[in-house]
Amino acid sequence: MMPTDVNVDFDLNSYLATKGADVEAALDQSLAVVYPEVIYESMRYSVMAGGKRLRPILCLATCELVGGTSAQAMPTACALEMVHTMSLIHDDLPAMDNDDYRRGQLTNHKVYGDDVAILAGDALLAYAFEFIADRTEDVPATAVLDVIRRLGHAVGAAGLVGGQIVDLASEGKPDTSIETLNFIHIHKTAALLEVSVVSGAVLAGADNDTIERLSRYAQNIGLAFQIVDDVLDVTSTQEELGKSIGKDIQAQKATYPSIWGLDESRKKADDLIQAAKEELEPFGPLKRPLVAIADFITARTH
Questions:
Q1: What is the SS3 assignment for 101?
Q2: Where are the domains positioned within the chain?
Q3: Cα(159)–Cα(175) distance, integer angstroms
Q4: Distance of CA 25 to CAs 137, 148, 164, Å?
Q5: I need a surface site. Which of 92, 229, 243, 273 has the fewest CB within 10 A?
Q6: This prediction's pTM
Q7: Are 290 and 218 in contact (CB under 8 A)?
Q8: Could you tell me the EC number(s) of this protein (predicted)?
């Protein structure tokens, strides 16, 4: 079990604010508006719309955990947010989840139209890989290539896209099994969180045992994150979440609360977070951000 005092002197809010501001500044500098302006404006509209910046912060935290620096990981951290934003833009489209609000503002296609939104997502995905290759410094080329490979795997048919396909196929099927639901979210949600955690460690030169331990940590927090998302979709308001709520119920999608109920879903999320924290036991004080982020996932209200 984790010692209960591991984060006594650690202020997660301050850590998230500081790292988030660093990521925000780097993202702002990464995307200039040039001709044809509309595509860059659309990309910036969604990338700069705020959010928790959890994926890039996880990347920075694990890089520092293993002995690297924020500077080594920042290009990849920005790329992860670009890829995550792409997935949100496309997920919100009428052909997918047909959502009107994201991060407290109108979704990209509601402002720029479906055509531009699709292309903005495409452009962000392509630019993310270019950005890692072009901007990463003081890291061996083999490590950069490994990060690019891992990110491609996490986003494609073996990861995010595969999860989304099964998610779409499960609409209107409230009797979807827990195995199918887990497949959806291990691929659609946890895969990108996992590569966020692992990529920071790879950039810092982590050994295979460390990478595998951090992978298990990330898989656990990723699934817990989705369970909490499903719970919040039932218990929160649109103002609290900054996005449309109740969409899963309307689409007759299976969710963790629909299978387990709210109380059991919360318990399962807590168990996953505990398992995630246990993977961090061998690390020293630098593990505190990762421990605190794990706890934050089940405590969050939006």
A1: strand
A2: 12-299
A3: 23
A4: 18, 23, 31
A5: 229
A6: 0.92
A7: no
A8: 2.5.1.1
